[in-house]
Design a protein that fits this description.
With about 190 residues, the protein is an alpha+beta fold. The chain contains two helices and eight strands; from the N terminus they run H-E-E-E-E-E-E-E-E-H.
């Protein structure tokens, strides 16, 4: 043990319970934690020509299967510039297979009002890696949810539960066999 102490050997069932519990907790975090991210264009020290604003471009690649659905929920928090009247923010979304850059026809452009929102859904047409490209000139909040057709994200949860249950069962079996040994030994002493 740390600090110069000594400890007993770690038993396999105890290690299995620990590993299984960690897998279950990690799976719950992966499946249920749904953070919202904020995208904000950089503030430039130089003034831009009238009618233009700085933009932020970002992308993320996902390994998806046919039948998976990706839902995007975008909310426009703040428009660029000082004129907040009417439609003022531009949000562009494109999905491309692999790591290619999107062509002009891949982009879907949306003009939003401050405080407005956009819900977009992408149905995956083929297995493989798909990249989401996002471009905006406004401050936006992005909430993304991937619905998998198969139970792929649930494998860690089921595997962790199985390992933890097996470890608990094995520890109970060892406790029973140890108590049987003590009962037999004590009966031999009285004869």
């Amino acid at each position: 043990m740390a600090g110069g102490g000594s400890g007993g050997e770690a038993k396999i069932p105890d290690v299995a319970i620990l590993i299984g519990s960690c897998l279950v907790i990690a799976a719950f975090i992966m499946l249920l934690w749904d953070p919202t991210s904020t995208l904000q264009p950089p503030e430039l020290g130089d003034e831009l020509p009238p009618g233009t604003s700085s933009t932020v471009d970002t992308w993320q690649t996902f390994d998806l299967n046919v039948g998976d659905e990706v839902s995007l929920d975008l909310g426009l928090v703040e428009c660029p510039g000082e004129d907040d009247s009417g439609d003022c923010g531009l949000v562009s979304v494109a999905w491309v297979e692999g790591y290619d850059m999107p062509s002009a026809e891949d982009w879907q452009h949306h003009v939003l009002k401050e405080g407005g929102g956009l819900e977009s859904q992408f149905d995956v047409p083929s297995d493989g890696e798909w990249t989401l490209h996002l471009r905006t000139d406004s401050v936006i909040e992005l909430d993304m949810d991937v619905e998998h057709q198969w139970l792929t994200p649930w494998i860690a949860l089921f595997l962790g539960m199985g390992i933890a249950v097996w470890g608990y069962w094995m520890s109970q079996q060892q406790n029973l066999s140890e108590s049987d040994i003590l009962i037999v030994d004590s009966s031999n002493l009285s004869d």
